[in-house]
Amino acid sequence: MEQLYSSSQARSKLSVSTSTFKRLVDSGKIRKVTPPNKKQGMYVKIDVDKIAEEMKPFSGNARYRNKQRSQNNELATATDWQKISDLPAILKLDLKVYQENIVGDIGLYISWERKNPKITMISFESSNREHILAYISLVPLPEKIILSILKGERPELSISPDEIVTYERKGGYTLLAESVVVDPDHPEQLNTVLREVLTYWCRQYPDRYIEKIYADAATDHGDMLARKLYFSPLYNISDRAYMLDLKKPGISKIVRNFQECLKQKALRASFHEEKATSKANGKTASSGGNTTNLKV
Predict the structure, then answer these.
(1) pTM of whole model > 0.90?
(2) Strands 42-44 and 4-5
(3) How far apart are CA 69 and CA 182, in angstroms?
(4) Closest C-alpha to 179, from 213, 208, 151
(5) Domain for residue 294, yes or no?
(6) 175: nearest Cα among 229, 213, 143, 136
(7) Is there a domain that residue 39 lies in?
(8) Same domain, yes or no: 82 and 194
(9) pLDDT digits (tens, 9 = 90+) for 232-250
(10) CA angle at residue 11 from 10 to 17, to 5 degrees?
(11) Neighbouring-strand partners of residue 210
């Protein structure tokens, strides 16, 4: 009988995550066998040892990095719309990321929050809300105002609360990505806050929906994020202006998933509408039939 490793033994030997190990098995590089009278699969030792040997020149401090990554992944997190009381923790994250005090007008941010409490989505340690790991601020504004900011005709901090749009009316909205900040120790939280925001908008659809998201990548960090999310550059406006048109097919996986969510909601809405119409027509026909019978 071939010598075998359990799943935990094999992953420990390779110092890889569960998902990476699964890919190695799915690709056939590591053979999986299930011994007689056993429910759990085992993995061929020579396959695992061969890959471990091949990985040696590239591993470096792989075990240490994997341990750190595992510790980070064990951090339980939660998400929520920002509250005014979260601002000190957000400013603390800004200082950690940018290594400088870039605090704007706190009173202005508070006035935005009071006008529309669904501007900033945050991710934080579930047992400690003051430990914020990431946040994204998407400010709903008339498109004309956003373009004026991107052209440099006015600064972002000139946005008054009266100009900020609330989500009461039905229809489309244009958003300005005012801030996207992620703790460098928890880069995965960027996707977390993005998913939560897009989930909110999927729930609003089709009554309310995002038409476009604009971004002014004022820093190298912001520019990198805009490119990573596949915003289109608007060089006719500015070298640092970007736009994501959500009516066009998405390139990034998270945007494609969002658009698929909208598609499924539209299909369900259409189905229920047709069903309701059919039911109403049936009642009308039935009522007409009853009236005829009564006349007879």
Answers:
(1) no
(2) antiparallel
(3) 16
(4) 213
(5) no
(6) 213
(7) yes
(8) yes
(9) 889 899 888 999 998 888 8
(10) 160
(11) 173
